Amino acid sequence: MSVETPFRTTVTVVGMTCGHCTSSVQEEVGEVAGVRSVEVDLASGAVTVTADREIGRDEIEAAVVEAGYSLA
Questions:
Q1: Is pTM, for the whole model, over 0.85?
Q2: Spatial CA neighbour of 3 closest among 69, 60, 44, 63
Q3: Ranges for the HMA domain (predicted)?
Q4: Which is nearest to 29 in space by CA: 40, 15, 42, 18?
Q5: Which of 44, 47, 51, 53 lies 20 to 30 A from 34 at CA?
Q6: How high is the pLDDT of residue 33?
Q7: Which helix (H) or strand (E) covers residue 39, if one does?
Q8: Lowest-confidence segment of 1-10, 15-24, 56-65 by average pLDDT
C-alpha cells in the first residue's frame, strides 16, 4: 500500500474479473467516510482512493471484503 499527499492511497484487489466487479468495489470503497474518488484498474487490480483524510488499509479492506473481494 502506498499513501501520497493529499491522501491518495493505492491497494491491489484480487478476484475481480469483469466490469461488474470493478463497479462493486468502486461503490463500496466510495462509501467510506471522506472518500472523494475511487479509480479501479481491472487488469492490474489496482484501486486508487483519493480522500479528504488519510484512509487506513483496514477501512479500505473492510469495504473491499463487503464487495466480495480481498486485498493482495
A1: yes
A2: 60
A3: 7-72
A4: 40
A5: 44
A6: 95
A7: strand 35-40
A8: 1-10
> What are the b/e assignments for 46-61, b being 16+ CB within 10 Å?
ebbbbbeeebeeebbb
| Average pLDDT estimate for 44-67 | 96
Rounded-to-integer distance, Cα 41 and Cα 72, Å: 14
Sign of CA dihedral 58, 64, 69, 71: negative
Take residue 56 and report the three cell numbers written for it.
487506513
Is residue 38 within 8 A of residue 48, CB to CB? The reply is yes
Cell 489496482 belongs to residue: 46
Q: How far apart are CA 71 and CA 11, in angstroms?
A: 7
**pLDDT given for residue 3 in this prediction:** 56
* Residues contacting residue 59 through CB under 8 Å, at least 6 positions apart: 32
Q: What is the model's pLDDT at position 6?
A: 77
